[in-house]
TrEMBL record, chains A, B:
Entry-linked Gene3D superfamilies: 1.50.10.10, Glycoside hydrolase, family 65, N-terminal domain (2.70.98.40), Maltose phosphorylase, domain 3 (2.60.420.10)
Occurrences of domain Glycoside hydrolase family 65 central catalytic (ranges): 324-674
GO BP term, example: carbohydrate metabolic process
Binding site for substrate: W358, D359, K586, Q587
Domain of life where this protein originates: Bacteria
GO molecular function ontology, one term from the record: hydrolase activity, hydrolyzing O-glycosyl compounds
Transmembrane regions: none
Annotated keywords: Glycosidase, Hydrolase
Domain Glycoside hydrolase family 65 N-terminal: 13-267
Similarity field: Belongs to the glycosyl hydrolase 65 family.
Domain Glycoside hydrolase family 65 C-terminal: 683-743
Entry protein name: Alpha,alpha-trehalose phosphorylase
List of catalytic residues: E485
Length: 774, 774
């Protein structure tokens, strides 16, 4: 059982209770502020229910067998908030439950253009009564605090129907922690502060016990029973439950239609009455817009998005669907986050405790920067809003400037294992990278002045204090962990050093560009440039490759031949110490450096390095395939690049990591865009210059992608022998095609021939680690 | 207030309640099997009570904020067992409590020759009645399961005296853990299995809740009131208390004399009835020997020991006392351990949870090997008895052979922080080193066949699987942690590699010597020799020193000038990441390599390396000073060596690390022996050859030391210009004096001139880190 292959939607036919944990994630709706997993309206059966408000979390103590100075004491975990999705149905005296009776027909469809999740179920109750249930659900892109559900029941016999629409707080869910204190902190995390219910409307306000955050959820309803005015309704509220009930006799072929409007809000500062007012206002707005109005706004928002961002893939329908699925979820994760983080799982599940990582800046934001730049800006504003926490963290660590956290919800470091957490200082360089990339792609001067310069300067200060000039090698950055999590606490990680180099230079430029916006001195700026110029980049003269960090290429090789498939991911079957000391790479590290700092490598170095690391990279991380696709395409392994694109694109749809129940992998979804646009499209932005080097893989007959750059929307169409660049909207664009300068104007598309790719032999991969995906 | 300076005892005059936490440790008695802290008989006031049975521990779950494969799940903590030291006194209606009334005279004396702790107190009760209380306590070296106390009260008025002698289980003590689960596991850890009390004798049997170990404690009494037969006694037992009570009217000038015999035993296998029988048998033996007999045996044992091991120091009485104090506690820790570990604190306190570390093999065992070799052998037999656990651990880690634990009570790894625990693989090489050293010093062929060969072979297998031949540098051992805990997860730690090299060669020799005792193949043996010959030893050609590991000398320098004294120990004020990436050394590492593998360095290298590391070593570990003394003396800094000797010798007596309340630092006590014998005596045993290179520091007029080697007991006496070597007992000895071969025979002492020491400039030490001690 699987998804139907259709270009603009994701449809699952049939019930498959044992697959609900997957579809709840893939069918999740979100606008970046509210997230709702794709659970059935009736609440059960279910895999893992989940309703999330971006940033709303509970705190708990982090346990340590042996403590160390500077270890974070408080962990944060996303909270499953008051569930407003629930609409239960009683058909005569039988509750609708798909595990009982007979689901004669059942399908659910996530529509990438309407931005809704639809359901159609023909159910026969255990006593033989049949009803058709249709629902459509949305989390509004246009009204940030609003979600809505249209729920329609059409009986095939004359029956009494009772519909119960709930707000349910403290839903019982199985603990995901094996630490009893953490489990206790997250068992019934919400404490009621306020409740009210009147007519069709109810509000519940809660707060968390330890983090002290407050939230409010409200619902209002419209009920319409065709051909009947005898509908009996009631509403009530308790501490953890508000319930609107409607009962009516409905004739065969007639229908009961319930429209449920939901308003959500939370705050760490505002009072309960203020939050109540906020959600009631949101509800009033939603009701005034009405269901049809919300649907229309939703579609318009998405029409606009697809116009800027759509990717067409000819020759692989399944990939076409997967790419749009990916873009749809990226936009859901980022659209209305507004100074909140974009978590690793978006708002699709509780994986990684709801934390945001560097994934945001290095994988998700490039997509948003070139498709919905305001969303990228808002995510960077979240980082900017956490600068105080990052400065505090740097101070605890004995450093200057700002050290952004490895994992966090509110900006405070939550990593309980510092070698793979705090030591991964590249996260601060990644934030700077994304900041610089956004600036360059938008020329957003306000952001440059108000936020970007401070981010760049504070992160540059971090590097200046973290590294040192050494007589042996130049400016060294020692004792850090790069992207590859199968190495840790290494010296001169090439990725880190190159990201730091760019960071230092970008900060120097920004400080000189906006002298009033920073207290950086001339000496400080000069020191940044000096450090950048002297940056140590290790090179192995014997093997003629870049070690991903000092000594890497001297380490023992991993015994791939004797590592069977069931020993992957390796970190679940081998100790860190063994992974760290050997040449086994979890995810693109030096290869990622060759993508984002491709300007620092020659073509020959790229080819040699790529082959070297391909043979040692196991892709136990979902972050890797997209990046490997990019470099594979660049050095000329188009088939391999295509395989990696497929792996990235199907990571969640085919549950390649067996954990999609915890939420979607935003970075992997984004990686499929990157594989296509930066991989086969050859899009690069080194030094601020946008360039392309497209090539068509054998598997496709054509592909096209769209993006915006400094206000200009462009479309690139790639065929086997030529590529066409077209302005969709905006001014002309100067760019390069395979190195050759071209100018595209609004009325003058440019078509260029594509040079033949070097047909290289496919590099050796570790035993058993061929790309997956189909 | 301080200790009186006397050559053969440690005496504290006056009460000083606020110093009890110190004197409880320094006055602790132990035979390596039973340990009793020096608490007052009446139980209170107290710092931290403690009675320990070597190996008797409770288990608890180790918590992790983020788990990793192979992390140990169970922690172990030494348990404060049933306290048999307690003897309470009621003088008329006033309990003797030193916090009330008036301690007119009070002194306690640890006697290094009698092996007892004596007390004399003249106490005036709040109501003005005076008594003299005298006690003497011993933990028997000759009867392993036995301790005894003589308690004598002499009233200065006619009074009624009531004496209560207890066995008290589950003594309430403040939790030392901030993890509630660990604290819970150790709060009242003992569960009663059996109790009995009859006449003057009582037995309590308990078991631990989680580890399921069983123990028994028994007491018997003799009571004697001079000039009175009217003594009323009673005895009773409850779950956690057995109490013998004696009441008598005692005339002024007369006395009440109570002799308490204690028997202790524990087992993980034997039943409660068997344990009861065991302690009752021990008691019967003790009573039969009697108090005077126990005293006589104790003195004879120690007379023998001092005859082999005594050190005389002329010109520094305080140091003389400190050195004998050190030797006395080393012998207490090791004498009767018998296939149990020698914990880092001996049995003097609960520090480090009662765990044994590599301290045993590299610091304590060299002393025992050359003074009480059977004790060294027994400690190595403990390691041998844990080989199965070490093999299991190696297998979990993906390695061959045996990986001994970083910290443990029963042989299973208990370190919850692997970069400073499991990664410190040198511990396995240290066990091999001590094994080889013992073999060489004793020619113990039984041990060679039965235990040593297996230890050497299994540890060699570890190295063979942990390292690899690399085209760049030879046989590399990557990703390990050396002795210096301010570095971790490094490549080619010189100490580790040199210890491994010796281990590999020793295993090859042992396997060839005892071919029937190992399944090692010829190929395997050849591979060990090949790895040893190719061992990578990094060297910095620019600075002309050995980096303690790859890259060390390229790391940033620590800013010592801006690190005030209150920021030490650094690990409590700076994050590991910062310590790890900089050139700051907690404890001798490369310098330790230059001591134990001095054959691998030239004299010039030693001098340059020593100066380099002196400037970067902060001695936040008590393991360091002794080793620094050895190398300082070797390269010619005699004054500095003396300062380090003083620091090592007074670590506990002057509580230099502010934690003597948790127990004594066995390695530091041992380090004072090493500083003297290997430092000023220049004793080395490289390649199995015993050699000397004595030199007298300016601060002394003469010193002498004794040791045994292959059954021959020798004495070395060192004066300014010459040294005399004398056979005390046994055959002739071939050795070297400052490189010159000499032969000492039973009737022919040899006196040799001492070449003048090079008078070198004192090397620079880190700001504020001069040796302490007085």
């Amino acid at each position: 059982m699987s998804y139907a292959i259709e270009p603009w939607q994701l449809r699952w036919q049939g019930l498959a209770v044992d697959q609900l944990h997957r579809t709840e994630s893939t069918f999740a709706l979100s606008n970046g502020h509210i997230g709702m997993r794709g659970t059935l309206e009736e609440g059960e059966p279910r895999g893992l229910p989940g309703t999330y408000l971006n940033g709303f979390h509970e705190q708990h103590q982090l346990p340590y067998g042996e403590k160390g100075y500077g270890y974070p004491e408080a962990g944060q975990t996303v909270v499953n908030v008051t569930d407003g999705k629930i609409i239960r149905l009683l058909v005569e005296d039988e509750p609708l439950d798909m595990r009982y009776g007979n689901a004669i027909e059942h399908e659910r469809t996530l529509d990438f253009r309407s931005g809704t999740l639809r359901r159609r179920t023909l159910w026969e109750s255990p006593t033989g009564r049949r009803v058709i249930v249709r629902s459509e659900r949305l989390v509004s892109f246009t009204q940030r605090a609003v979600a809505a559900i249209r729920y329609e029941v059409e009986p095939m016999d004359d029956v009494q129907l009772v519909v119960q629409s709930d707000l349910l707080a403290n839903e019982p869910i199985q603990s995901r922690s094996n630490d009893p204190r953490v489990a206790a902190a997250l068992d019934s995390p919400l404490v009621n502060d306020f409740m009210t219910a009147e007519k069709t409307r109810a509000v519940l306000c809660h707060r968390t016990k330890a983090s002290g955050l407050r939230m409010a959820a409200a619902m209002d309803h419209e009920i319409d029973v065709a051909g009947s005015s005898d509908v009996r309704t009631e509403i009530r509220a308790e501490d953890d439950l508000a319930r609107f009930t409607a009962a009516a006799d409905v004739a065969a072929g007639s229908s009961l239609k319930l429209t449920k409007y939901l308003g959500y809000g939370w705050s760490g500062k505002r009072s309960t009455p203020a939050l109540r007012a906020q959600v009631e206002a949101a509800l009033a707005g939603a009701c005034q817009t009405g269901w049809d109005g919300l649907l229309a706004e939703q579609r318009e928002f998405l029409d606009n998005f697809w116009q800027v961002a759509d990717i067409e893939v000819d020759g692989d329908d399944q990939l076409q669907q997967a790419i749009r699925f990916a873009l749809f979820h990226i936009i859901q994760a980022g659209a209305r986050g507004e100074t909140r983080a974009i978590p690793g799982k978006g708002l699709t599940g509780p994986g990684y405790d709801g934390h945001a990582f560097w994934d945001t800046e290095m994988f998700v934001l490039p997509v948003l920067t070139y498709t919905l730049p305001d969303a990228a800006r808002d995510a960077l504003r979240w980082r900017h809003s956490t600068l105080d926490a990052a400065r505090d963290r740097a101070e605890v660590l004995g450093l200057k400037g700002a050290a952004f956290p490895w994992r966090s919800i509110n900006g405070a470091e939550c990593s309980a294992y510092w070698p793979a957490g705090t030591a991964a200082f590249h996260v601060s360089g990644d934030v700077a990278y994304a900041t610089q990339q956004y600036l360059n792609a938008t020329n957003d001067e306000d952001f440059d002045r108000e936020e970007a310069t401070e981010i760049l300067v504070e992160t540059a200060r971090l590097w200046a204090s973290l590294g040192h000039h050494d007589p042996h090698d130049g400016f060294r950055i020692d004792g850090v962990t790069g992207p590859d999590e199968y190495s840790a606490i290494v010296d001169n990680n090439v990725y880190t050093n190159l990201i730091a180099q760019q960071n230092l230079r970008a900060a120097a430029d920004a400080a000189e560009r906006n002298p009033g916006r920073t207290d950086a001195t001339e000496d400080e700026i000069a020191a940044w440039r000096r450090a950048a110029d002297a940056m140590a980049i290790p090179y192995d003269d014997m093997l003629r490759v870049h070690p991903q960090a000092d000594n890497f290429t001297k380490h023992a090789e991993w015994d791939f031949e004797n590592t069977p498939e069931d020993k992957y991911p390796l970190l679940l079957h081998f100790p860190y110490f063994d992974l760290y000391r050997k040449q086994v790479v979890k995810q693109a590290d030096l290869v990622l450096a060759m993508h984002v700092r491709g300007d620092a490598f020659t073509a020959e170095e790229k080819a040699r390095n790529f082959a070297y690391y391909e043979a040692r990279t196991v892709r136990d991380s979902s972050l890797s395939a997209g990046t490997q696709a990019v470099l594979a395409a660049e050095v000329g392994h188009l088939d391999l690049a295509y395989d990696y694109l497929v792996e990235a694109a199907f990571t969640d749809l085919h549950d390649l990591h067996n954990n999609v129940n915890n939420g979607l992998h935003m970075a992997s979804l984004a990686g499929s865009w990157t594989a296509l646009v930066a991989g086969f499209g050859g899009m690069r932005d080194h030094g601020g210059e946008l360039t392309f080097a497209p090539r068509l893989p054998d598997a496709l007959t054509r592909f096209s992608f769209r993006m915006c750059f400094r206000g200009t929307r462009i479309a690139v169409e790639v065929r086997e022998a030529e590529a066409t660049y077209r302005i969709v909207d905006g001014a002309k664009l100067e760019t390069r095609h395979h190195g050759e300068p071209i100018t595209i104007t609004a009325d003058q598309p440019v078509t260029m021939p594509i040079p033949a790719a070097p047909r290289l032999e496919r590099p050796a991969l570790p035993f058993g680690r061929e790309p997956r995906g189909r």
